[in-house]
Amino acid sequence: MKPQTCRQFTLAARPTGKVKESDLAFREVEIPEPADGEILVHNEYFSLDPSMKGHMEDRSDYRAPLQIGEVMAGRSVGTVVKSRHSEINEGDQVFGFLGWSDYTVTNGKSIPVHVYHEKVNPEAALGVMGGTGMTAFFGLTRIGEPQSGDVLVVSGAAGATGNVAGQIGRILGCHVIGIAGSDDKCRMLGDELGFHATINYKTEDVGEALDKLCPNGIDIYFDNVGGDILNECLARLALHARIVLCGGISHYNLEQKPPGPDNYFNLVFRRAKMHGFLLSDFSESFDEAREQLRSWYEQGELIQKSTVIDGFTCLPQALVKLFDGYNLGKMMVRND
Amino acid sequence: MKPQTCRQFTLAARPTGKVKESDLAFREVEIPEPADGEILVHNEYFSLDPSMKGHMEDRSDYRAPLQIGEVMAGRSVGTVVKSRHSEINEGDQVFGFLGWSDYTVTNGKSIPVHVYHEKVNPEAALGVMGGTGMTAFFGLTRIGEPQSGDVLVVSGAAGATGNVAGQIGRILGCHVIGIAGSDDKCRMLGDELGFHATINYKTEDVGEALDKLCPNGIDIYFDNVGGDILNECLARLALHARIVLCGGISHYNLEQKPPGPDNYFNLVFRRAKMHGFLLSDFSESFDEAREQLRSWYEQGELIQKSTVIDGFTCLPQALVKLFDGYNLGKMMVRND
What pTM value is reported for the model? Predict the structure, then answer.
């Protein structure tokens, strides 16, 4: 049932420390009308991502910050319900930074969208083929440069990006070790997603476990968390190792910067690199990546794992839960 | 005057904290005789390098450690005084890890040597064309990937590797900023070696100075020191910056690891990389590099800066002085 008004969440306050539900404000507005050349999208699934916190903060690090009172930014997938656009039709499925709103108007460029003329599974559109899936794809393939037989360690491995990075590593012939924060997550990685080994960092000594699981060192470390786990991996690099710096969820909740990794100098002894990237660096190759991911997904090699919370009004709560590590795989909210 | 005996320094104790003269022991032995296929080299100039401390320590980081009682390892340049080798002649000049000894015997492979059939300036053979010059060359060109117009910051800029890295950057069209520890060193970099700007880290606030000198950020940071200066540079990276991790002289004197660089996460926001390397990674290209460096040197584009201390018995003292930052350019001892 489509709502008669357009519900939205706007940025009410910039988060300090952990994100709180009260950092977002609910409002209802009239459903917007698309002008000539525009489409009206009904958003059906909303993506929750750690990077959202950076977007809510007043930092010029890599993206213009949201202004207080603006509609919360975020990726979603939805259906075109009205089109005055020459190439996008009613019924088409679209994906993009459409924001926390029941409906969004765009000409496809003001807010760039990817159009699926043939619908795909919306969870996969947000997950393995979405922003986090492509982040995993480019980070692993372009920065990690995996070779068959490489030992790949992924932290935040049960998260949206981590689980896909590990799965792609498995597809490409790596020996994949996932680090996650619960036995349930570790079981899911091993039993469902084909990780070769897992470490529960809350109950195991990560350094000791790595010593056992990769006695010859780590060829690729796909880092989603930073902090101590990054430092333990730095201490155990194989020659010419690559550290893919994808995120640092252990950073996002802190008001103060945590200490730097004091094992970084091992990069010299191991002739290794630590390389940061953002998905946007690879925008020219998005279509190619999505095609590859879709193909692996449709062949059943790449599994979509989601934690889906129902109801538009749950969006702020879902964001808080994301930072509490509640999700297995991609955290998303399904519109009601 | 050639000595009638062969003086040597051996490793007497593994250094803890700073290197001390007493970590080395003097002895005299008979001058060795070359066997069939071997040469006898009289060592004339000895290179002093920060990496020697790592070699003296019992660490398996990247090279087999010296054993107590063994002749101290180090690069030198000398003249072949006896040859029973088919391709190396008496009078040839050779360069290699010949050790702290008046005389060294090798077949050219047990201790690999580079042979100059036509003699070059021995200071340049150890300096701009030696291990530190080639380290600067490969670090800057292969890891730093300089483009004309890039802002290049070099720390330890008055040191043996740093001054050459900065000069090569200047030759390749970079805007070169050198960080060094005295006004004399800074003057030398600007007046003699063509650095575009300098920072005396002992009297200036490095962060503020960098803000003024490179308002658009740092494209390449050639790191010879680690520590706070690395962290200040991490905070000021341009997009797609490259950090060349060459050494960390601020590390070598410490018994405890210093804190890691807590600005490392800026590598993500700036899509930048931090890449360690060792000279030995590029051994296949040594001859090519030496040719390029020699050509720049002979054309007067690359200046050899040395601090030369006279007398074989000064070797331990010279090593201590190296870690005190006594040298401008390449630290070496001339044999008497």
Answer: 0.90
